[in-house]
Amino acid sequence: MTVYTASTTAPVNIATLKYWGKRDANLNLPTNSSISVTLAQDDLRTLTSAATSESFEKDTLWLNGKEESLTNKRTQDCLQDLRGLRNQLESQDASLPKMSQWRLHIVSENNFPTAAGLASSAAGFAALVVAVAKLYKLPQDMSELSRIARKGSGSACRSLFGGYVAWEMGEAEDGLDSMAVQVLPQEAWPEMKAAILVVSDVKKDTPSTQGMQLTVATSDLFKERITSIVPKRFVEMKEAIENRDFPRFAEMTMKDSNSFHATCLDSYPPIFYINDTSKKVIRLVHSINAFFNETIVAYTFDAGPNAVLYYLEKNEEKLFAFLYKLLHQVKGWEPKYNKEQLNGFINTFENQYKDK
Ligand code: DP6
């Protein structure tokens, strides 16, 4: 019996304008548009292979070597849409194998620890949808497929593209216009880099789906965020990316992370994702920018305490010198600055900011 297979990888994306809130939980439609930067393929990614055959008896999923249930609604919603599209192809061409009727075996592996609190569901669902779409030889483009990945996990729709990506919230009730589009390919602004500061590898206490529902239901600040703050910022952040304007992009990224965490605090009972160490990172970033009298680095935090820093490659040495000295841990990195120069920097910095 023939077994058909296809594989793909999907990278993690980190939002710089946060998706937080659903207007329709069933179709996973957001209350606001969002923007993210997709990390490079060889950094954090999910590798997924999908196989199908007439002889398979049931759908199965292995995640990082462990068999997982494939019965959860989100995965089922994605598979149902993909099978529906395959079925359309089969009804147009009777010679095609009837894969839409067959069971699937899916194997998925992250190259980073799932428990590190990094957006693993985004890469996971993106890879699942693209792998099955490849297996089924679907003609749909990435934006069309992103509508399906969205049903798996909202943020997943953005991981179908590399570079700088917008998820347009759309207006239609059926969600047909709620999909991801690329704002700029990675090659168009390749100097952008991301560093992840793992503050804690403990699993987050309030899962994002649950957290955002609580915010929508209880936060007054949230209403202000989605009606007046985010729509304007969405347009401006896209502009900043198109113009490769790092200081503007960075300022909006930090403000949006703060605005999102403020709505978490304004939820009732409040949700705390960032902790004291995260707050130290926030202060440090502002101090570094003040020290250089220029915005060279931005922080952002998702639904957890780990920081993602965005900076331009040309500033990596400067930035890491501080992180190295002050946080004492930058894996696999040694400063290239000569010791005297580095200590000079840090001493001035520490004297200037010792009370902050
Ligand atoms: C803070 O995409 O995980 O990372 O759609 O319920 O699966 P569900 O939520 P999810 O939420 C991500 C929230 C966020 C912000 C973002 O990625 O935009």
From TrEMBL:
Q: Which Gene3D superfamilies match?
A: 3.30.230.10, GHMP kinase, C-terminal domain (3.30.70.890)
Ranges of residues in domain Mvd1 C-terminal: 195-356
Q: Which EC class is this protein assigned?
A: lyase
- Keyword terms of this UniProt record: ATP-binding, Lipid biosynthesis, Lipid metabolism, Lyase, Nucleotide-binding, Steroid biosynthesis, Steroid metabolism, Sterol biosynthesis, Sterol metabolism
Q: Name one GO biological process term.
A: sterol biosynthetic process
According to the record, the signal peptide region is none
Protein EC:
4.1.1.33
**Catalytic activities:** (R)-5-diphosphomevalonate + ATP = isopentenyl diphosphate + ADP + phosphate + CO2
Q: Which GO terms describe its molecular function?
A: ATP binding; diphosphomevalonate decarboxylase activity
Q: Which InterPro entries match?
A: GHMP_kinase_C_sf (IPR036554), Mev_decarb (IPR005935), Mev_diP_decarb (IPR029765), MVD-like_N (IPR053859), Mvd1_C (IPR041431), Ribosomal_Su5_D2-typ_SF (IPR020568), Ribsml_uS5_D2-typ_fold_subgr (IPR014721)
The UniProt entry's sequence similarity note says:
Belongs to the diphosphomevalonate decarboxylase family.
Protein name stated in the entry: Diphosphomevalonate decarboxylase
Species per Swiss-Prot/TrEMBL record: Maudiozyma saulgeensis
